[in-house]
Specification:
The structure holds two protein chains of two kinds. Chain A has two helices and no strands. The two termini of chain A are 27 Å apart. In chain B, 51% of the residues lie in helices and 18% in strands. In chain B, helix 1 packs antiparallel against helix 5, helix 5 packs across helix 6 and helix 10 runs parallel beside helix 14. Chain B is rod-shaped. Chain B has 15 helices and 14 strands. The chains are: A mainly alpha, B alpha/beta. Chains A and B meet through helix 1 and helix 2 of A and helix 14, helix 15 and strand 12 of B.
């Protein structure tokens, strides 16, 4: 589950990069397509932030465990 | 004198004449029994234990005569006289020839004596008897003599017709012929010259045999304890020996024997044989007598005696005094001393030294012991020092190893701590890096969010910009438009279709 989520974050970041690349390489303005990409990017940001928060929380637990030892 | 002592005297006399040991004549028990019972006749005498027919025949008359003499109140009466007394008192008796000769024989048996004469008619009969006659050189008197061949050999005297000898014995009646015969017990050459000659001959014979060789001699035991002593009860030799033997607790068994002249040969040999039977009981045999002339020492130059001494089973010490020539017995003995006193001192010299040595040792012993203890103490001290030294070394080694071990432990502990530290560092680095990465991702997301906002076409359109398209293509230049062209205009909230009126 965690692995899938991690993959998801990496995937999300990759997709974000793809979106940036897409925007950078755009010669003509395709409002609909651009809008779609923005929406997708916004969704990706959201899920990534959630995932990042989860990772941070998990890390805190692991760190506390390490410090206990 | 008592009856007992007279009987003892009788016994000694008879034993000497026969050349046998005195107890073989009568035992002391026999004598005591006779003195107690005082038998008056043959029957009474025969009732005493140990007196049988044979003994009665030999000594019966003599014993009865002594007892009778004592019973009439006389003492120390020789047998001959006693018989006379007896004869006087009784009525003259008619006797048979046999009895008369028997009585005569008994009487004569007390008349032992030493007779000197020249030998005539010398015969050895079947190696059993020797017959000869003795004749005076001056007077015409002859004495017929007989002697057992064994005794003759024992005398060690070479006799031939014409030899002048001294015969010792007692008269005896030869009954079948009623003849008087002198029973010779011992015989010796007469005169110093003859004795010296016999001595020289025997000396050479023994010398040729190697009897005097030093390697034939045995060493006397260093500490003799059991001594068989052969000497005469009379004379100074025994006294000298006893005086000088000292008090060392030695066991000395005396074998009394005559030592005077050749007649002593029987007793000497009997005593030697008696000792030889009990050699297990003795360490040394001592033969002593005082000094004397060649004649009086004759027995000690007797070949038979010399041979016995030479081959005696235990070492022999001789102390036979002499005036001129050393006796042959002394020469063949294992050791000889000049006097009985010297013999005694010789036997005890080592004992004396031992006694002195013992006193010295007694004084030395505590010091020896102290020295020994001191020595052992030193050894012990040395040993303990060595031990402690080793122990210290061991301790040091142990400490060294312990330290080494501890240093290893510390090293590894430090190493482990270092590892732990580095692990911790790695952990903190990891978390730092991770947090950085998270932060980076966050920033990227933020940047991306801003970027998205920038690139969002809706945002541009909502600001009042619009996008013109002609036949689907976005218009970027006025050159591409003509009048009356139909254009599609995209606004924020919808699309317009417009026709171009004029171009400026």
């Amino acid at each position: 589950m965690t692995a899938k989520k991690q993959e998801n974050l990496s995937e999300a970041l990759k997709k974000i990069q793809d979106i940036i690349t897409w925007f950078e390489g755009q010669q003509e303005v395709d409002v609909e397509k651009g809008l779609e990409k923005v929406k997708e990017g916004a969704a990706l940001i959201k899920t990534s932030r959630v995932r990042l928060q989860e990772i941070e929380n998990e890390f805190e637990i692991v760190k506390k465990d390490l410090e206990k030892e | 004198m008592s009856l007992t002592s007279d009987l003892l005297h009788f016994r000694e006399q008879a034993a000497r004449l026969e050349g046998i040991e005195s107890f073989k004549v009568l035992s002391k028990a026999n004598i005591d029994a006779i003195a107690f019972a005082r038998p008056k006749n043959k029957e009474e005498l025969m009732q005493i234990k140990g007196i049988k027919e044979a003994r009665y025949r030999k000594y019966g008359q003599g014993i009865l005569a002594i007892v009778t003499a004592h019973s009439v109140g006389e003492s120390m009466v020789p047998q001959v006289e006693a018989a006379e007394v007896q004869g006087n008192k009784e009525e003259p008796q008619t006797l048979s020839v046999h009895d008369f000769l028997g009585a005569l024989d008994t009487e004569l048996s007390g008349m032992a004596g030493r007779v000197r004469g020249e030998v005539t008619e010398f015969t050895i009969w079947q190696k059993r008897m020797v017959f000869f006659s003795l004749k005076d050189t001056k007077e015409e008197s002859t004495l017929r003599c007989s002697m057992s061949y064994q005794n003759y050999l024992l005398t060690g005297t070479e006799v031939a017709i014409g030899t002048e000898v001294v015969a010792e014995g007692y008269p005896k009646i030869y009954k079948p012929r009623g003849e008087l015969s002198f029973q010779v017990m011992t015989l010796e050459l007469f005169g110093e010259g003859a004795l010296k000659k016999a001595y020289d001959i025997l000396y050479k014979k023994l010398e040729a045999k190697g009897a005097f060789d030093a390697n034939q001699k045995r060493t006397l035991p260093r500490y003799p304890e059991r001594i068989a002593l052969i000497t005469s009860l009379d004379g100074a030799a025994l006294g000298d020996f006893q005086t000088n033997i000292g008090r060392f607790g030695l066991k000395i068994d005396l074998y009394p024997s005559g030592v005077e002249g050749n007649r002593a040969i029987h007793e000497l040999i009997a005593s030697l044989q008696a000792v030889a039977k009990r050699t297990q009981e003795y360490d040394v045999l001592v033969l002593i007598r005082g000094g004397g002339s060649l004649e009086s020492l004759a027995a000690f130059n007797n070949e038979n005696l010399v041979e016995i001494i030479r081959t005696f089973p235990i070492p022999v010490l001789a102390g036979i005094g002499h005036e001129k020539d050393v006796t042959l017995a002394s020469l063949v003995a294992d050791q000889m001393e000049s006097t009985p006193t010297a013999c005694a001192l010789c036997l005890t010299s080592h004992w004396e030294n031992a006694r002195e040595g013992m006193y010295a040792f007694c004084e030395k012993l505590p010091r020896l012991f102290e020295a020994l203890v001191h020595e052992k103490k030193e050894l012990l001290t040395e040993a303990s020092q060595t031990f402690f030294f080793n122990l210290t070394a061991l301790k040091e080694a142990a400490t060294k190893y312990e330290q080494q071990f501890l240093s290893w432990v510390y090293t590894y502990q430090g190493y482990a701590q270092g590892e732990q530290e580095s692990l911790k560092n790695i952990g903190s680095q990891l978390s730092t890096r991770f947090l950085e990465r998270i932060s980076e991702v966050k920033n990227s997301l933020q940047n991306f969010s801003q970027y998205l906002a920038q690139v969002d076409p809706n945002r541009v359109l909502s600001l009042g910009y619009s996008i013109l398209r002609k036949q689907g293509k976005v218009l970027r230049s006025i050159q591409d438009v003509k009048a009356n062209d139909i254009l599609h205009i995209r606004l924020a909230d919808g699309t317009l279709v417009a026709s171009v009126k004029e171009i400026d």
